[in-house]
Amino acid sequence: xxxxxxxxxxxxxxxxxxxxxxxxxxxxxxxxxxxxxxxxxxxxxxxxxxxxxxxxxxxxxxxxxxxxxxxxxxxxxxxxxxxxxxxxxxxxxxxxxxxxxxxxxxx
Length: 107
Known about the structure:
Layout: E1 6-7, H1 9-17, E2 26-33, E3 39-46, E4 53-57, E5 60-64, E6 76-82, E7 85-91, E8 97-98, E9 104-106
């Protein structure tokens, strides 16, 4: 069964730290063609659209458009802080392979 993506508390906390809601923005997660593996993630602050799936927690919002939703079924959206940097990451069980940078994948 395909479930919508989940957002971790750590990801919502990071959105709160950067003031996304205060700016009237949401974190948009989209899947586009391209990248070295066939598909790539587009992750940015954006205005929600009327047909977006809206995931809410801790006063913050993450939105996914209807075209990207099947590619993100059962995925987990998280925030990671490592020595090399901090970024939103997606654990996507639909991806059969991904590139070394983690932003491109194939299904």
